[in-house]
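Design a sequence for this backbone.
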């Protein structure tokens, strides 16, 4: 007589998922939204909100002060294009703190294999994180410019002045986006190389600090051509050179006839950082 099987199958309620498959685009959008929320500490502890909202508050206070001064004097002390240049340091510090939050934490906790399982691709992860950082760095500055524009719009006396004011605002918004793009690309690349957030933040600040004195050295030892090209040595002054070329921030371009070169170098810097970021995530967590 054969033995009867003694094993028992218990139904504990697990079922196969038969709902809609939302796909790669939905996963990328969700990751982007999550990145923006992370940048401003939304959905996290109060401690995570302190720095990003403090920076946003500083930027907003500067905009309020400039708006009040313009309302009292009748003249804008700082143009829309000059506004992001006055906020270079807060933007760099913002990127230095937020970039490690976006990528270094994932490296440290080892969740990247879960991201890359499916349907999101490695390139999606890198580019979406970059887009989230650039957007987060741009939004406070753009909000400040819009606040300045709102104050100026109530002070105009004709529709022509309104459209003139709007024509001044749009290049300013583009210039602040350029700041966010260059600073964000450099910051995220550096952050992707370190799993510790404190180390990554320090490294990002060091990249900007170390390159700045090089500009001063080149400016002092070079002739007229050297002075016009010296700003290429640092991401901070590189963006300023592009602004002088495109928007003539300050009234007179300090880069001479080399404005197109500044534009090419800025584009190459962003493209190079994005390419290296993609290369980094092709190799990580394999």
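Sequence:
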């Amino acid at each position: 007589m054969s033995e009867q099987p003694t094993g028992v199958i218990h139904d504990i309620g697990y079922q196969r998922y038969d709902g809609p498959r939302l796909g790669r685009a939905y996963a990328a959008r969700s990751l982007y939204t999550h990145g923006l929320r992370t940048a401003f500490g939304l959905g996290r502890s109060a401690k995570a909100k302190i720095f990003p909202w403090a920076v946003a508050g500083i930027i907003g206070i500067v905009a309020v002060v400039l708006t009040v001064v313009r309302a009292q004097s009748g003249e804008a002390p700082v143009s829309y294009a000059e506004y992001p240049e006055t906020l270079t340091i807060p933007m760099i510090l913002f990127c230095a703190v937020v970039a490690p939050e976006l990528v270094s934490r994932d490296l440290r906790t080892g969740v990247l294999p879960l991201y890359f399982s499916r349907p999101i691709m490695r390139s999606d992860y890198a580019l979406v994180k970059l887009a989230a950082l650039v957007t987060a760095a741009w939004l406070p500055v753009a909000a400040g410019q819009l606040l300045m524009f709102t104050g100026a719009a109530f002070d105009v006396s004709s529709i022509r002045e309104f459209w003139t004011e709007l024509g001044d605002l749009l290049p300013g918004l583009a210039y602040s986006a350029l700041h966010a793009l260059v600073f964000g690309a450099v910051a995220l690349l550096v952050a992707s190389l370190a799993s510790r957030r404190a180390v990554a933040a320090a490294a990002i600040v060091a990249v900007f600090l170390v390159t700045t004195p090089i500009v001063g050295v080149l400016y002092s030892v070079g002739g007229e051509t050297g002075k016009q090209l010296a700003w290429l040595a640092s991401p901070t002054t590189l963006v300023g050179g592009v602004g002088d070329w495109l928007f003539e921030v300050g009234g007179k371009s300090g880069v001479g006839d080399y404005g197109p070169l500044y534009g090419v170098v800025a584009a190459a810097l962003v493209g190079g950082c994005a390419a290296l970021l993609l290369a980094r995530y092709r190799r990580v967590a394999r």
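The radius of gyration is 24 Å.
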